[in-house]
TrEMBL record:
UniProt xrefs under InterPro entries: Glu-Q_tRNA(Asp)_Synthase, Glu/Gln-tRNA-synth, Glu/Gln-tRNA-synth_Ib_cat-dom, GluQ/Sye, Rossmann-like_a/b/a_fold
Species whose genome carries this gene: Rubrivivax gelatinosus (Rhodocyclus gelatinosus)
Protein name as annotated: Glutamyl-Q tRNA(Asp) synthetase
Domain named Glutamyl/glutaminyl-tRNA synthetase class Ib catalytic: residues: 3-244
Gene for this chain: gluQ
Family per record: Belongs to the class-I aminoacyl-tRNA synthetase family. GluQ subfamily.
Pfam families for the chain: tRNA-synt_1c
The EC number(s) this enzyme carries: 6.1.1.-
Cofactor: Zn(2+)
Binding site for ATP: K238
Motif ('KMSKS' region): 235-239
Keywords per UniProt: Aminoacyl-tRNA synthetase, ATP-binding, Ligase, Metal-binding, Nucleotide-binding, Protein biosynthesis, Zinc
Amino acid sequence: MYRGRFAPSPTGPLHAGSLVAALASWLDARAHGGAWLLRIEDVDTPRCVAGADRVILGQLAACGLVPDEPPWWQSQRGGAYADALQQLADAGRAYPCACTRRDIEQALAARGLAHERFAERVYPGTCRDGLAGRPARAWRLRVEGRVHWHDRRLGEAGQDVAAEVGDFVLKRADGLWAYQLAVVVDDAAQGITDVVRGEDLADNTPRQILLQRALGVPTPRYLHTPLVLGADGHKLSKQNGAQALDLADPLAALRTAAATLGLPRLGARGVADWLASAVAAWAGIIAG
């Protein structure tokens, strides 16, 4: 049975870009006759805003997007992440790391590799063979090889994770769980079969597939949706001026999100009627 999810971070209210991802994931679940779940990804506690999770739940409800099961909060899932890390460590796939960001940048600079804005800092593997007497700060996944996958919208894709990312963090130096580990553990625990999310998260997919394989859990199907861009040409976000959704007219907000997804303009008497028409339109798109 199809099981999808929407997994916002409670760093503030939903904006136009996040509604696109929420609507797409909801439509895909409904078009497949499946379940739609909600997970609050609040492991990065310094970035979370008090009460934002409840605001998000209210915004989704105003748009008729109500989860089929009670929401999960990642901040309540630390035990599951610790178990997964222990499993990886026992299998020799995870190891402790003593490096600071400055250590990594200096190691890369020594190789003549300058860090570019928005580019990944490729971990040079400094602690792969031991800490050399230094205290552990974080935990990393030992990465090997290239990953290939199929995206339902973007098509065939691949990445040499070792060369383009390196051994990536599972548990941060500040003691917080890394997004990559948390999302893989929770997708498996919730039985997620299909991940529908913004295109900006596509580059996380190969890392998550490597983790899924290392933990012995299924790999979902992926569909990455078009992005809403800010005035600076980058993904619309709170960092570049995204405003909270104006839900004085939820139907207008849904129509704007649907246009980004390539749905035609649909006549409707209200939100529920519009959503029913949108499911049929989405089913036609994914079948075509």
